[in-house]
């Protein structure tokens, strides 16, 4: 019995390579169907996905036709380990394909928001308390037809918008130590893949922001200005209107270079 | 007519090396098995947690971005194996070793290969007799001294040609210096794993005969095997890099902008930890401009990233012996650090 299992194990181990490659061909096909890969990569990398699909397919065909049993190098245990590692990402890809980066990732990637020994509350000087009186519960909903300014465009041209009203949208996030009425609207900006995602966002201020939850998608209208945060003047929107939005599909959440 | 079979046996008759489990003994097997088991267990237990989902996205992204390049590298390597005779490659190389190293360090300009694709390509070239110094120079220089890296640097830094030129020049200079130094410190046999030695391709030279399609198939099989062999190193590297990205706040690095020496060192650590591709790291480096991070430290990040990171070091395990990897890593880090320190103080 034991030797039969051993023989079977060796037999399967020697044939793992084509199966691993076939699994990757299927994974690429699945990612390309309905643009699922956009949860991880930027759209211009579709060609890269097709390239992976084609090469993995060619490798699989060659491995299947290359004769049996003689193909594998190493012990059968090593073959299982190699196959296991190569299949591991597929598990994670399937598990993560319908989620996006949110406030947790923002807290690890935002730059210039920490100053040892000081909380965000201490870092922000409120120059005009009257600016903080708007309560989001009283705000009228934003009209659907109006097109919001994309956050990256808004930040790149902040000087042009300063002093005027602007409509934009993104995810809401308020750090734990943020003072009442201060939060942030942000999105992630991707160059190649989600691993290099850089957050872009503006501070928003207005009374009643506490009723918003972190990672909630919002559309906000506010007056563009700059607030003193940690000794630097940072882009801040003084809220005039806010609307909670349903989360877009994962493949529409990121901004791409 | 019966097709000639492609036999890949574990023991190569020419060199006598056992191809099976060349580096990993029983302990290595257990460690890798445990790693795999733990990864799956964490996925089952914590799959729904926000932090773990962030980790999953980053890990999947790194793998998805790197795999096509690695497959391409394995394919090129496989085709080199069957279509490029050793003698032809030897004839292409200049007679003077230093000239070969310089040529290899700048080869990326006409033959651009990113860091995930370069290891399988160099592995095959080494088996074909590429000298150690040239292999190191191409390995380090290929992903950085190339038009794609230059274009991404220009885009990230608002078309500042000086930044792109400095990056390419430093990449070329450091890759060449590392190649020359590795040649001085090691012989081929001391640095390169036995199964990558010349004449040790494990194929009995079976693809000398056969038609084009038979050789093509043999090249594809070689490529598939390289992918099967090296893939796990990339995955372990991507896993560790994703873990670091999930756990460590980048703001910690931005906090040390005051002292250039520390800034350079910290940005070098960040480059190793993040394991980004050479096209993306210019954008991440550029995002540090607004924190007051010295330019030399940003450049250290951009130069070291494509040469030395977690997944690359793990992939080197399929090519070099451990002592050579440690020396190469230390040399590369030291060369980058001192070059950038000099640049900082001569205020380029």
Provide structural commentary.
The complex is a heterodimer of chains A (about 260) and B (about 350). Chain A is of the alpha/beta class and about 260 residues long. Chain A folds into two domains: about 1-95, no CATH class; about 105-255, Nucleic acid-binding proteins (OB fold (Dihydrolipoamide Acetyltransferase, E2P), Beta Barrel). Chain A has eight helices and six strands, in the order H-H-H-H-H-H-H-H-E-E-E-E-E-E. Chain A has a five-stranded mixed β-barrel with strand order 1-2-3-5-4. In chain A, a hairpin with an 8-residue loop joins strand 1 (about 165-175) and strand 2 (about 180-190). In chain A, helix 2 (about 15-30) runs antiparallel to helix 3 and helix 2 runs parallel beside helix 4. The radius of gyration of chain A is 25 Å and the shape is elongated. Chain A starts with a helix and ends with a strand. In chain A, about 45% of the residues are buried. Mean pLDDT of chain A is about 80; it is low at about 115-120 and about 120-135. By secondary structure, chain B is mostly helical. Chain B has one domain (about 45-345). In chain B, about 70% of the residues lie in helices and about 0% in strands. In chain B, helix 8 (about 160-185) crosses helix 16. Chain B is globular. The model of chain B is unreliable at about 1-25 (pLDDT under 50). The chains are: A alpha/beta (about 260), B mainly alpha (about 350). Chain A: InterPro entries: DUF1980, DUF1980_C, UPF0703_membrane_permease. Chain A: Keywords: Membrane, Transmembrane, Transmembrane helix. Chain A: It comes from Desulfatibacillum alkenivorans DSM 16219. Chain A: This is TIGR03943 family protein. Chain A: Pfam families: DUF1980_C.
């Amino acid at each position: 019995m034991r030797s039969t299992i051993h023989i079977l194990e060796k037999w399967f181990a020697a044939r793992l390579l084509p199966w691993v490659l076939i699994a990757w061909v299927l994974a690429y096909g699945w990612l390309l169907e309905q643009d699922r890969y956009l949860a991880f990569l930027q759209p211009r990398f579709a060609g890269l996905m097709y390239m992976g699909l084609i090469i993995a397919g060619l490798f699989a065909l060659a491995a299947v036709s290359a004769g049996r049993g003689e193909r594998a190098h190493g012990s059968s245990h090593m073959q299982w380990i190699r196959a296991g590692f190569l299949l591991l990402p597929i598990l994670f890809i399937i598990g993560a394909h319908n989620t996006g980066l949110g406030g947790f990732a923002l807290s690890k990637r935002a730059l210039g928001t920490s100053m040892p020994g000081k909380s965000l509350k201490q870092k922000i000087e409120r120059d005009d308390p009257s600016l903080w009186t708007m309560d989001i519960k009283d705000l009228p909903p934003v009209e659907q037809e109006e097109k919001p300014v994309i956050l990256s465009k808004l930040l790149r041209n902040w000087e042009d918008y300063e002093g005027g009203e602007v409509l934009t949208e993104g995810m809401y996030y308020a750090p734990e130590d943020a003072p009442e009425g201060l939060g942030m609207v942000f999105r992630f900006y991707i160059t190649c893949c989600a691993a290099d995602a850089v957050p872009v966002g503006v501070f928003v201020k207005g009374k009643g922001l506490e009723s918003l939850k972190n990672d909630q998608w919002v559309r906000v209208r506010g007056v563009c200005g700059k607030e003193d945060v940690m000794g630097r003047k940072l882009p801040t929107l003084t809220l005039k209107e806010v609307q909670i939005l349903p989360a877009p599909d994962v493949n529409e959440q990121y901004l791409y270079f | 007519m019966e097709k000639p079979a492609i036999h890949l046996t574990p023991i190569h008759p020419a060199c006598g090396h056992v191809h099976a489990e060349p580096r990993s003994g029983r302990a290595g097997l257990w460690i890798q098995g445990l790693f795999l088991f733990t990864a799956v267990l964490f996925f089952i237990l914590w799959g729904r947690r926000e932090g773990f989902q962030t980790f999953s996205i980053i890990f999947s992204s790194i793998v998805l971005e790197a795999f096509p390049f690695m497959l391409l590298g394995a394919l090129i390597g496989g085709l080199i194996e069957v279509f490029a005779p050793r003698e032809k490659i030897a004839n292409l190389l200049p007679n003077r070793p230093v000239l070969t190293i310089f040529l290899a360090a700048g080869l990326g300009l006409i033959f651009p290969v990113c860091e995930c694709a370069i290891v399988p390509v160099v592995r095959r070239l080494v088996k074909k007799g590429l000298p150690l110094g040239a292999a190191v120079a191409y390995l380090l220089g290929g992903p950085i001294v190339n038009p794609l890296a230059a274009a991404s640097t220009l885009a990230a830094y608002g078309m500042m040609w000086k930044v792109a030129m400095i990056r390419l020049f430093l990449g070329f200079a450091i890759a060449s210096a590392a190649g020359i130094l590795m040649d001085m410190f090691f012989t081929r046999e001391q640095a390169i794993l036995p199964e990558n030695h010349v004449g040790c391709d494990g194929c009995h030279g079976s693809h000398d005969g056969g038609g084009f399609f038979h050789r093509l198939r043999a090249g594809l099989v070689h490529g598939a095997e390289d992918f099967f062999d090296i893939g796990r190193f990339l995955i372990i590297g991507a896993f560790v890099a994703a873990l670091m990205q999930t756990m460590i706040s980048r703001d910690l690095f931005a906090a040390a902008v005051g002292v250039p020496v520390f800034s350079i060192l910290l940005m070098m650590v960040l480059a190793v930890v993040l394991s980004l591709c050479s096209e993306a790291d210019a954008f991440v480096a550029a995002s540090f401009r607004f924190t007051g991070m010295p330019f030399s430290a940003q450049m250290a990040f951009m130069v070291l990233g494509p040469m030395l990171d977690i997944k690359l070091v793990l992939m080197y395990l399929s090519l070099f012996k451990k002592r050579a990897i440690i020396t190469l890593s230390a040399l590369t880090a030291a060369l980058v650090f001192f070059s950038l320190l000099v640049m900082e103080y001569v205020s380029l």
